[in-house]
Design brief:
alpha/beta, Rossmann fold, 10 helices, about 250 residues
């Protein structure tokens, strides 16, 4: 770590739980972020500011005026830009030392199979069940920790799905792919602007803890936020031995 890095990351280094060793691990890590919207914006900005060495950002969409109410990585001047390019500009402005791979593609199974193997940690900031299940399956297959978040209207959820934690569930244990969940989108249901910031910032915090080795993650727990009354609910979620993705003896391949 050079003098500039010692100064830039001094407030992390001052934390006994992180220190120089933990910050060095962050600097040498690679995070894969799926989605550069409401959740992906604070995730991308905080991972960059914290010095995550390599960040791969995947999103197929472009910046729209309706995004600006909550997607803080984008600006009015960048309406029409690819979201990954817009987010990259914001991240580079904060920390030009970070290597950013901006991919304007859909996070489909073949792409995830390639990208997840290269990452140390994956953050799911997508907004639909199909993508979430594809990301989860790739993380289970390649034994990578997954930090997941979701937000709609006044409600938010966050958890960590880590194959390295015994008896901890994967995303499919909690939200089975065969279940009939109602798909909800911000475009039709709305969302309180700071809610995505709260959940996305917590995702970044969980990722940095995992990368640095600080504290304990949310693996095995699901946090749910009622933002209208600002109440948190903490639920223990066990692994499903019969899960179609991570269940023994035939996890997803």
């Amino acid at each position: 770590m050079n003098d500039d890095q010692l100064l830039r990351y001094s407030r992390h280094i001052l934390l006994d739980e992180i220190g120089i060793e933990g910050q060095s691990r962050i600097l040498n890590s690679h995070a894969l972020v799926i989605g550069a919207g409401g959740l992906g914006s604070p995730v991308a900005l905080y991972l960059a500011s914290a010095g995550v060495g390599t960040i791969t950002l995947v999103d197929h969409d472009t910046v729209d005026m309706t995004n600006l109410q909550r997607q803080i990585a984008h600006t009015e001047q960048r309406v029409g830009w690819e979201k990954t390019q817009s987010a990259q500009a914001a991240m580079t402005a904060i920390n030009p030392q970070v290597r950013i791979h901006a991919l304007t593609e859909r996070a489909d199974v073949p792409l995830l199979d390639k990208l997840v193997t290269q990452a140390d940690i994956v953050l799911d900031c997508s907004d639909n069940f199909k993508t979430r299940h594809a990301v989860n399956a790739a993380c289970v297959k390649h034994h990578k920790p997954l930090v997941w978040g979701a937000a709609i209207r006044f409600d938010g959820q966050i958890s960590v799905y880590d194959p390295a934690v015994a008896n901890a569930p994967c995303y499919a244990c909690v939200f089975p792919p065969q279940a009939d969940f109602e798909e909800t989108r911000c475009a039709t249901m709305g969302v309180l602007a700071p809610l995505v910031g709260i959940i996305g910032t917590m995702q970044a915090a969980e990722a940095l803890k995992l990368l640095s080795g600080a504290g304990a993650s949310l693996a095995g727990r699901l946090l749910m936020l009622d933002g209208l009354h600002m109440r948190w609910t903490d639920v223990q979620v066990p692994r499903d031995a019969h899960c179609s993705v991570c269940g023994h003896p035939h996890p997803a391949a």
